Amino acid sequence: MTATRVALDRALGEATALLPARPDAALAAAEAILRQAPGLPPAEVIACQALRQLGRPKAALSRLSALARRQPHAPVVLWELAQAASEAGDSRRAIDALESLTRQQPMVARGWFLLAAELRKAKRVQDGWRADLAGVQAASRDPELLDAAIAMNDARLDDCVALLTARLARSPDDPPALRLLGETRWRQGDMSAALELVQQAVDLAPGFDMARDFLIRLLMQTNRLGEALDHAERLSLSPVRSPGHDMIKASVLVRLGQQEQAGAIYLQLLAHHPEQPQVWQNLGHVLKTLGQQADAIHAYRKAVTYQPTMGEAWWSLANLKTVSLDAHDIAAMEQALLALDATAEKDRDDIFHLHFSLGKAFEDAKDHAASFRHYAAGNALRRAMILHDADGFSAEVAAAADVFTSAFIAQRGEGGCPAPDPIFIVGLPRSGSTLVEQILASHSQIEGTMELPDMMMIASRLQSRVEEGEFADFRAMVASLTPADRQRLGEEYIERTRIHRQTDRPYFIDKMPNNWQHVGLIHLILPQAKIVDARRHPIGCCLSGWKQHFARGQTFSYDLVEIGRYYRDYVALMAAFDRALPGRVHRVIYEHMVADTPGEVARLLAALGLPFEEGCLAFWRTERAVRTASSEQVRQPIFTDGVGQWKHYAEWLSPLITTLGSLVDNYPDVPGPDASRVEAVASRH
């Protein structure tokens, strides 16, 4: 190598080093080189890069165009030409350069993403979408991203974060890296960071379908359903059609209560490909919710025809409650169990669903011993798959009872959102709450919605402030809420739930049963809201919950002792609140409602300050979507079959009965606070 070449290389290196911080100096250095070596391509590129950084893209574009005529296939020249043209507002020339570049280097993702952006500027939206998808495909073979993905899937989340953070420091506008880091943060439990990162990926590459799909799922998890639907609508326009896009849109519609629209999507999918058990099952869920029982049964049976081991479809069939599974069904489910591998993680969901289904089938057949064995097997397997800290939960409930005394509430004074709209129905699952909801939703002034998670999410956010050390304990956190804070929180709840209200009725029902844990918070932030406590005999309620597999939540329900403790905690907190604010909660005893429906309905409506309406007594005629396990039972007149049904299983229920203690003998009355505390402690030992 000649001395001249060595000097030129040194000068080029020095000019390049100046670019990030001193583009003016880099330009001067490049021009000096070009005086010595006119037209030297690397020096021209440095000069044009400097011009772009100095805000002179048109000057750079002129020089790069000339350079491209001399070197039409040089990737670095095409890349710089595209960026200069983009910054100069000349999308046509940018697109021409990028199309040439991506033909030469189809596995360089950055070229595709920049091409996509230019195509969108030129109103070529679908072409831009395809370019984004090509960029994602190219990135899927990037060694660095592959290493990060392997680390994430191996649960080496910190390693994955380190790899992606370093990459994004070099290139912050990297959609695949942002999406992958977002998923890693989600797996680490940082939902806020995950949402922000995945949103950035979608903003940079609107045609990045996988990122948008993941964003929709994150938005659904945080109950931002309106935004989720907007993104699902956008995803459905993808030039690459995928049934998955339709499925996720239908899932959002279901969560929004728009069952008919979701059902139409499932029917359309099945019209083209009828052999899809998952779609048949989802259609069954929609039809069940809409009260179309015969069609729901047909859909569920189609699902298990195409996939006999599909445990959730069998359970969905059994869970209709009004359907009896026969000997043929039992044989089919037992055969399905034999076909599954009890040691394989992928089969566990099907196995426990099948056990719950067989429990129901043998219950229908009056073989209660076999029924209990299968219920016990399903519960044991499900309990091993979830986390539930019974001691920790009891401590939280006790803390809430200690905080929300009459003196503490009086000290808070006025405050909260004065909206009278919400009617909260609280209690345990399988306590008759769906019956109460259906009765109330039959009133002309009340709209039934569904089990809304919004109050629980607000409460969880407040509790996190304690867990993060902002407050010493729960009492200090609640005491810190000013009247304005409480009003803002109440208004937030009203605004968050507005999307579920489809009528102009002045009142709406939130039937999330777990909200009994938050009656104190509800009172402070929504002082005009009504609270109804639906209560059922402790043994009957707990056994019914234990026999029920819930799609999500209710982690306490898979062990007889734990569900008994949960019932005790619930009764204790509601009793404490009754002492603090007598009459604030109206209690509906299920057995009383069954025995004297007109009288109990009249008392319920009077407690809510509403006139009696005969339609509430003919509640089963009210057409509305019902998503809970009691969806079919509330579409027929009240029946007494559920009262005392637990006695068929009495010989196996001693752990539950011992845990419940005096609550059984005193029901529906509640033992005094001292007795409750003593027995609660005893039940833990």
TrEMBL record:
The keyword Transferase applies. This is Sulfotransferase family protein. TPR repeats lie at residues 175-208, 277-310. Keywords: TPR repeat, Transferase. Gene3D superfamilies: P-loop containing nucleotide triphosphate hydrolases (3.40.50.300), Tetratricopeptide repeat domain (1.25.40.10). SMART domains: TPR. SUPFAM superfamilies: P-loop containing nucleoside triphosphate hydrolases, TPR-like. GO terms for molecular function: protein-tyrosine sulfotransferase activity. It holds the Pfam family TPR_19.
